[in-house]
Amino acid sequence: MVIGVLLGILVGVLPGLGAPNGVSLLLPLTFGMQPVSAIILLSSMYWGALFGGSVTSILFNIPGEPSSVATTFDGYPMARDGRPTTALATAFGSAAFGALAGVVLITLSASWVAKVALAFGPPEYFAVYFLAFASFVGMGGSPPIKTLVSLAIGFALAAVGIDTVSGSVRLTMGIDELVKGISFVVAVMGLFGIGELLIAVEDELQVKAISSKVEWREVFRTVAHLPRYGWVLLRSAAIGCWMGITPGGPTAASFMSYGIAKRLSSRRANFGKGEPEGIIAPETADHAAGTSALLPMLSLGIPGSATAAVMMGGLMIWGLNPGPMLFIEQKDFVWGLIASMYLGNVVAVILVLLTVPIFAALMRVPFFIIAPLIVIICAVGAYSVSNSYLDVVLMMGFGLLGYLFKKLHYPLAPLVLATVIGDKAEDAFRQSMLMSKGSLGIFFSNTLVTTLVLLGAALLVLPVIWQTLGKMAARSPARQ
Amino acid sequence: MVSGRALETATALLTGTFGAAVVISSLDNGIGWSAAGVDAGTFPFIVGLIILSGSVFNLVQGWLQARDIVLRPSELKRLGILFIPAAIYVGLIPLIGMYLASAGYVFGALAWHKRGSFIFSAVAGIGTAVALYLIFELTFQVSLPRGALGDVLGF
């Protein structure tokens, strides 16, 4: 677990390597391990990455993770003003609270959700998938059509290879090696690893380090002061949990939480200048979302974030089938994982505080040394998934695609999500069609399924309505 | 210099081509309804259509709206300095194997930037290859490709 957390912090600190990427790099190495220890390693790494991302945001104004971008707004100014310890402690304290809120939520509701989900048939499942994908398009914050394209590309990638229902070979474009399909690990490494590297190299990284000494007395004092911001903490945790369960993801959660905190705060003018609330809000939401994203993954088999999607892919490779049956067949595994979440977060907080100076020193290693190493790690990682050179080439291709998508604000998370669960969604759809002999009416055959489908449809058209309303609002004052 | 318009157009054309390829390729698997249920090509066919139409929309949008410059020459140059060697590295793997390629890549990157001495760069390159061997071949028993050169040498 300690190794996992340390690796996670490393991945989180390094720009160009993020949590989804780090977890997928470790995946091929865990195939020989017991599933329980493997998932603990991976989830510890996840916590580490979430914390590590905040360290660089605060000390260097460089977010190590997309989700810690919002932390730079107030974290960096506070550290620059000579209070780096306060900034770090505030961030970690609120992050731990957010993560705790997420874990408690999982502990309390996971088995209940799983029980409800046991009654699900294929149409219900498809409706839930539909809802998840629709909420991406509707609430992701990126241009809806770009989200849709990204999502659909993910589905198409998932369909490559042998079709599980009919056994026929699909979309290989005449390349025999593609019969085995395209592994999501390869896609993630290219999209996030190489893609982010290319984004990072674009602006010359000038690391202006702030003294990174941690004063312990200051840490305790800051954490003791946190309850004063109880309302902000609770609100941000709630936002985070909500965005984590519905696949909005940690990045959207932290921005949303920051925005709301800024709007509602009585010290609005201080935001952007080192206001504690401006650190608490995004950090709490970020970690709450990151943690609670595992709830739908475990109980429904629908991951709430890109990293959760990668982890779920890992579960499937280890022969575990995420979803309600997991709670019956693999009780030990599920509760072992949940227990490790409590412990893992505590370990992560302690380790990250202890190692801040070391990792801060690492940031001073010039980028031109780190960049080739990341390329090599990604190439070896892609190769080791199935010992195929084609995967390495594909990975580089995905890298270019990831760069273009990042640059033009296409979201990447839907693509990853769709590559992981695309097959399942398709199977659910085709099984429902078999049940109903080809009639779409099955998606309106009972209250549950109808509600889910309608909710999904509402989320799908919501952005269009908002946009039109926004345009109308913009036009009407012009007319007067 | 690259404008937002050019980048948007290129990306939309890329995704659009992919979508078209998916649509055409899924026609081979059959679309629609048969005795065995929904045909294998149906789902990819719909997905391909979504990609295609979405790309057309993005193409038009990008053409109309994105006018400012998104990539300055200096940025483009830095991108090239990172990506071209990386592409060469991947291209060399089947020829000289992953170990040699990785060592050469690290050595080349360090020597290019002229930081540290020639010997330091060489040590770092060899160190990378050794580390890869220790971690993957010995610890996790993943055999990395040796390339055509490796076959010749019998390694």
Largest sheet of chain A: 2 strands, antiparallel
**Estimated radius of gyration of chain B:** 23 Å
CA gyration radius of chain A, whole angstroms:
22 Å
Total beta-strand segments of chain B: 4
Largest sheet features of chain B: 2 strands, antiparallel
Strand-residue fraction of chain A?
under 5%
Strand % of chain B is 5-15%
Q: Estimate the global geometry of chain A from the Cα principal axes.
A: globular
Structural class category of chain B: mainly alpha
Strand order of the largest sheet of chain A: 1-2
Tally of helical runs of chain A:
20
Summed over residues and divided by their number, the pLDDT of chain A gives a mean of 79
The average pLDDT of chain B is: 83
Low-confidence stretches of chain A: none
* Total number of domains of chain A: 1
Terminal CA distance of chain A? 64 Å
Give a description of the structure:
- The complex is a heterodimer of chains A (480) and B (155).
- By secondary structure, chain A is an all-alpha fold.
- Chain A has one domain.
- Chain A is built from 20 helices and two strands.
- Chain A has a two-stranded antiparallel sheet.
- In chain A, helix 3 (35-60) packs antiparallel against helix 5 (84-118), helix 4 (69-80) packs antiparallel against helix 5 and helix 7 packs across helix 19.
- Chain B is mostly helical.
- Chain B has two domains: 2-71; 73-153, no CATH class.
- Chain B is 76% helix and 6% strand.
- Chain B has helices at 4-27, 42-65, 73-113, 118-139, 147-153, and strands at residues 2-3, 33-34, 37-38, 69-71.
- Chain B has a two-stranded antiparallel sheet with strand order 1-4. A two-stranded antiparallel sheet of chain B has the order 2-3.
- In chain B, helix 1 (4-27) packs antiparallel against helix 2 (42-65).
- The longest helix of chain B is centred in the middle third of the chain and has 41 residues, at 73-113.
- Chain B is flat and about 65 Å long.
- Chain B starts with a strand and ends with a helix.
